[in-house]
Amino acid sequence: MIQENLVEKVLSAIDPEEVIRLTASLVRINSVWDPVAGTNEKTAAEFVARWAQAQGFQVQMDEVAPGRPNVVVTHAGGPGPRTLMFEGHTDVVTPGDVSQWAYDPFGAQIVGRRMYGRGTNDTKGNLAAMLAAMAAIQRSGVALAGSVVGGVLCDEEDQMIGVQDFIRRGHADRVTAAVICEPQDGMICTSQKGALRARFHIAGKMSHGAMPLAGLNTSPAVAELLRGLHALEAEAVNAFGRDPHLGWPSFTPTVVQAPAAGAAQLNVMPGEARVLVDIRTLPAQSHVDIIAALGRLAADAQARARAHYDDYDRLLGIERPCGLTVGMEILTDRPCTRTAAGDPVVQAADWATRSVTGREPVYGGVPGATDGTFLWALKHIPIVTMGAGDREVPHQKDEWVDLDQLVATAGIYALIALHYLGAGPDA
Ligand SMILES: [Zn+2]
User: Fold this and answer.
1) What is the rounded distance in angstroms from the CA atom of residue 148 to the CA atom of residue 397?
2) Over the stretch 196-219, which tens digit does the pLDDT of each residue have?
3) What is the 342 CA–ligand 1 centroid distance (Å)?
4) Cβ distance 120 to 401 under 8 Å?
């Protein structure tokens, strides 16, 4: 049981203006990773490092790639067995066509109780909230039984090299639970969908469109693949149903390309084609089984396309050497994550949300992968994903965050640390 006076001490150490100021400062730094324009996470990371040093935290900067550092901020608590990590990323996605914005994407303009700009929602606001939460704990003088680590990481939006570097350097070894600070509109998300991306490559024989019998069109095999992928999706939907937090499993062909390279021309029959599929999975699905099924699908599509050519050649009384092939490779394999409702970090998130908002917490799931996926998959760290910001707003124009929700989030984060780590003996 947490003493009421400790809750009071920690919450009163949150400075709402500081949360807003920190968010604005971070949004005004363009941290889109764009090697052509020369922008990256470096300036934002250095800003965080300077701020954290001024607060008296232990700060370590790790160069993950040129111009792309991670910052590891530590509030050292007692020698208890638990260490809580807050994770927030410094990179933001491109603003796209700036003329489509009503607000300066890097202006951090406040209108009413909303702040506009790239990253206000995903996730510089939540990054500011987690830093303000750590500062509140430090300033409150409340001694925690264990430590808090702030992972301020690069490259969440692309290949997630930041979190992988954080793990490789051993920073995650001491972490026993993590809060992934992402816009989930105040919900406590305990699960995330998995992702499997695969590429099918079909090789036939290119020929003149007027002389199709001189080649082998890739299209019949493409048709087989699209039909087969839909059948796999229907099978998964039937077998696993709809997860209340994550929705349906999906097998979505996203790129269908023939020819696989070079200009497409109406009178040239393509010799090579490719089909890319983006598969999103539920925790009950086995990625190993799906990969095996995709391999079988490639073999089946090849056999069927070859049989189709054999039959057709017999009908026409011709003979073509049918060397059409269908290959498959996996491009991405990110597992689902699921943290049990009874896990101490979920219990802490539940209590903290109730304490700050006075409302029953809402639970949910994350449709995409986050840095938390790697902490969960590689280090078996239980994670919750939560933070301020409408879930539909990330990566859109006129991105915004509600400032009252953002300030409340800083309080929730601080109380999660208090509940999860517990007060030290000298509290
Ligand atoms: Zn994000």
Assistant:
1) 34
2) 999 999 999 999 999 999 999 999
3) 26
4) yes
Domain boundaries, the chain: 4-192+336-421, 194-334
46: CA distance to ligand 1 center in Å?
A: 19
Q: How far apart are CA 214 and CA 202, in angstroms?
A: 17
CA 253 centroid distance within chain = 20
**Span from the CA of 89 to the centroid of ligand 1 (angstroms):** 7
Among the listed residues 270, 34, 67, 276, the one whose alpha carbon sits nearest the alpha carbon of residue 157:
34
Q: Are 118 and 184 in contact (CB under 8 A)?
A: no
Measured in angstroms, how far is the CA atom of residue 88 from the centroid of ligand 1?
Answer: 8
* Ligand 1 center from residue 121 Cα (angstroms): 8
Nearest CA among 172, 56, 130, 176 for reference residue 422: 176
Element (H, E) at 280: strand 272-281
Centre of ligand 1 from the C-alpha of residue 87, in Å: 10
18 alpha carbon to ligand 1 midpoint, in Å?
21
Separation of CA 157 and ligand 1 centre (Å): 7
422 C-alpha vs ligand 1 centroid, how far in Å?
Answer: 28
What is the fold, at CATH topology level, of the domain defined by 194-334?
Alpha-Beta Plaits (3.30.70)
Distance CA 201, CA 221 (A): 10
pTM, 2 dp? 0.90
Ligand 1 center from residue 368 Cα (angstroms): 10
Task: Determine the 3-state secondary structure of 241 from DSSP.
Answer: coil
At 217-267, the pLDDT tens digits run: 999 999 999 999 999 999 999 999 999 999 999 999 999 999 999 999 999
The fold of the 4-192+336-421 domain, in CATH, is Aminopeptidase (3.40.630)
Q: What is the largest CA-CA distance in the chain?
A: 92
Give the closest residue to 15 by CA, choosing from 136, 148, 150, 143: 136
